[in-house]
Amino acid sequence: MSGLEVRDLRVAYPGTPPVEAVRGVSLSIRRGETLALLGPSGCGKSSLLSAVVGIVEQAGGTVAWDGEDLARVPVHKRGFGLVFQDGQLFPHLTVGANIAFGLEMSGMGRAARVARVEELLALVGLEGLGQRGVTELSGGQRQRVALARSLAPRPRLLALDEPLSSLDTDLRARLAVEVRDILQASGATGLLVTHDPAEASVMADRVVRMEDGRLA
Questions:
Q1: How far apart are CA 29 and CA 188, in angstroms?
Q2: CA nearest 151: which of 78, 82, 77?
Q3: What is the DSSP letter of 5?
């Protein structure tokens, strides 16, 4: 299958006995599609996302992209991007430098970096703000910078872990629509984790529910 394929995935954390956070979950995401994992805190959705990205070790099952098993592929070579709920921007860098950070680390030339940053600033609706400090931005603007930074290297999958949960209700509703439109415009494949049914229905093409480590 073209895209992400997860089969019988298990995630367990150390303990006596071990705590099984994800219990044999199988799902697939087609290229260009966004899938939302919806469920309450502690149901295993963030653990599943973390195992897909590779920042948490899987205890069993497979995670594959275009048929390639990613079990032995390190995080930085999976070609996946990740957006956290707090953005995790570098406060000492400008908007443009935050977006360009990963591109610079990958060795992209300066002219190409500048062009890509300008393209992304336009995509997320922040034209002209490349030289502004991120501490001068609103919460919604900072999350758009985080989104642009994650999209900069053209990831084949973008994982979004409760990306709007730190914002107020009205802003979350507006930004959910904006993020959906940005993902569609960029052609990105998305895996969204959220506890908000309205957010899931707006941002994703499909919604699956998780309860107690399993798909409901």
A1: 11
A2: 82
A3: E
Convert the pLDDT of each residue in 68-99 to its tens digit. 999 999 999 999 999 987 768 999 999 999 99
Which amino acid is it at 187?
A: G
| pLDDT score, position 161 | 94
Question: Class for domain 33-55+74-203, per CATH?
Answer: alpha beta
CA 21 – CA 47 distance, rounded (Å): 7
Q: Is the pLDDT of residue 165 over 90?
A: no
Burial class from Cβ neighbours inside 10 Å (0-12, 13-18, 19+) for residue 16 reads exposed
Q: Which of 158-196 are b and which e, b meaning 16 or more Cβ less than 10 Å from the residue's Cβ? A: bbbbbbbeebeeeebeebbebbbebbeebebbbbbbbeb
Q: What Cα–Cα distance (Å) separates residue 79 from each residue in 70, 75, 82, 134?
A: 11, 8, 10, 26
Which residue in this structure is represented by tokens 């070790």? 57
pTM of the model: 0.91
Q: Where are the domains of the chain?
A: 33-55+74-203
In contact, 193 and 164? CB cutoff 8 Å: no
Cα 176 to Cα 153: distance, rounded to the nearest angstrom: 22
